[in-house]
Amino acid sequence: MNTSIPSGVWRLQLGKATVLLHRRTWLMTLLMLVTLLLLFVLSVSIGSADMSMREVIATLGGQGSKLHEIMVYKIRLPRVTGVVVAGLAMGMAGCLIQTLVRNRLATPDMVGVNEGASLAVIVFALYLTLGSWPWWASPLGAALAAVALFVLCRRPGEQGYLFIIIGIAISELFNAVGEFAMSTQPLTHLGSVYLWTMGHFAHVSYQTTQPITLILLALCPLMALINRPLALLRFGDATARNLGVNVPLVQLGILGLAILVASLGTAIGGPVIFVAMAAPILASWLTRDNLAPIWLAALCGAVMLMGSDILVRVLAQPNEIPTGIMTRILGGFLLLFLLIKDRQWSD
Amino acid sequence: MTVLQVRNLQFGYHQKPVLHDVSFSLPRGKLIGIVGPNGSGKSTLLKLLAGQLPLQQGEVDIQGQALASFSTKALARQLAFLPQRPVMAEGIRVEQLVQYGRHPHQGWFNQWSAEDARQVARARDIMQLEPLWQRIASSLSGGQAQRAWLGMILAQNTDLILLDEPTSALDIGLQTEVMESIRHITTENRTVLIVIHDLGMAARYCDELIALDEGRVAAMGPAREVITKALVDRLYNTNVDILAAPDDGAPVIVPRRRTS
């Protein structure tokens, strides 16, 4: 048997540097990229005024009519790019927290991080009317929720279920405070904020998406660096440390990244349930391996959120329904499925 | 030169002392067993030596260098540690598990070298993992899983190997199989330190034993000299008979009944 190269990988050699690329992982990455591109074009073509996918491509290439240009650039692209960026961020954050806690149910939308983020945004948007959308407030709220979570549950890697249950309680608490804050305001003042809390992308503007995209891009090298130790953390603290991972440092890094990324993902279109949980599960299913990398989980997140957004727009036409309602329905089924499957395992 | 030197080691969890003034050194190429009753501090001692717990008092030198001076990754090139119940990541194959043993020797731009290939093949052959190579590691039986873990530890290619109760959950056939594999590792001039409960197995396979009693070294030396009726009776609060095994005279410990 030949072990000169691990099976199922491509080996890249550049001078002295050797990099391994897992074949299946990269093929699936490519597949998800193509899927995302197709959905992107499809998503731009859908709306009250019909456009063919061919016209969308022509307009994006600068060959479209004036009317189409306005439709694409002013109305549809802000929404669609917002969905892509939020989906990427949610996939990343889900992958990071699930690995940290070693539990598939531990995602930022389950444990209160997203609710913390949205509470901060609600408070800033309602009480400190600033004119622009206070997306930058979200990491503050998320960090607050995460601190509360970690003070109440010290060892997330070893007490997965406790972590999740405390997280659900925190999440409910933040949610309630947010609703209280909204209920003090007149309804007319409330419209867009209320829709946002249900996960709504219709009013997303470039002023929100652009800085968030830049921050996420700046975090990419850190993600690449953390990907290998992240894979080893799945063997528990002791084995990870034995294999040379500085466990406390890496855990802190993962937590910081996860909070930042999750809150930025929330800031765009509001707290959306299900994507952060499902994206890493889809990614590991695609690679037939539970060690799916962060970027694949991110791509899966974008594809899923985009799919939900398209679905909600097609089904509800001509009404506007928040995308988060569709993800809630899909997420509810997924959660039930996972819990029932886990129960069968433990029987 | 000794591989590992321990001087006046003391340790406690939250004011509760666990180890008192433990000192010993390990010669190269030997299999050494740590024995002692439950709660005597065996696992704590092993975790301290592996850098899994922070040192409080005393000194530990690895290859003549202070344990605390190693970075996590540098330490992982000096010693390998297998916890009592390691967590198996779901979905990975035995091949991948063994390859992860090379992580301390790799970097972002050095993900696979000829040496990596050589060490992984070596570990696979010593632990006889060929038939299991493409199996999903979490679906293996207890003995097979233990061999796969030992494969990962061997791929790490360290002079010192620390194993916390590698045979506890196995039946006697598998215990023998795993102990033979561990014995084989020491023929490569590696030092293996194991925590082990079964005194008979310990006496038969280990070159030397360290007996711990309430965090103190109660006895230390060649295995067959350490296992005496007096010591076993005292350590485990029992009344035993020690017989000689018919084939090689290794001590066999038989506890007497306590009832009248």
A few lines on this structure:
Chain B: This is ABC transporter ATP-binding protein. Chain A is mostly helical.
Provide a descriptive summary of the structure in words.
The complex is a heterodimer of chains A (347) and B (260). Chain A contains 13 helices and two strands. Chain A has 347 residues and is mainly alpha-helical. A two-stranded antiparallel ribbon of chain A has the order 1-2. Chain A is globular, with a radius of gyration of 21 Å. Chain B has two domains: 2-78 and 158-255, Rossmann fold; 89-157, no CATH class. Chain B has nine helices and twelve strands. The model of chain B has no long low-confidence stretch (mean pLDDT 92). The chains are: A mainly alpha (347), B alpha/beta (260). The A-B interface holds A 1, 3-7, 9, 11, 16-20, 102, 224-225, 228, 231-232, 234-236, 238-239, 241-247, 284, 288-291 and B 50-52, 71-73, 75-77, 80-83, 86-92, 95-96, 99-101, 103-104, 108-114, 117, 120-121, 124, 130, 133-134, 156.
Provide tags for this entry.
heterodimer, A: 347 residues, mainly alpha, two-stranded antiparallel ribbon, 2 strands, B: 260 residues, alpha/beta, Rossmann fold, four-stranded antiparallel β-sheet, globular, iron transport (chain B), P-loop_NTPase (chain B)
Q: Going across the major beta sheet of chain A, what is the strand order?
A: 1-2
Can you summarize the main beta sheet of chain A?
Answer: 2 strands, antiparallel
Element order of chain A: H for helix, E for strand: EEHHHHHHHHHHHHH
- Detail the poorly predicted runs of chain A: none
Query: Approximately how much beta-strand content do the residues of chain A carry?
Result: under 5%
Count of alpha/pi helices of chain A? 13
What's the total number of strands of chain A? 2
Structural class of chain B: alpha/beta
Total number of distinct structural domains of chain B: 2
Strand content of chain B: 25-35%
Give helix % range of chain A. over 70%
Strand order of the largest sheet of chain B: 6-7-8-3-9-10
Helix count of chain B, per DSSP?
9
GO cellular component, one term (chain B): plasma membrane
Main location (chain B): membrane
Subcellular location (chain B): Cell membrane
GO molecular function, one term (chain B): ATP hydrolysis activity
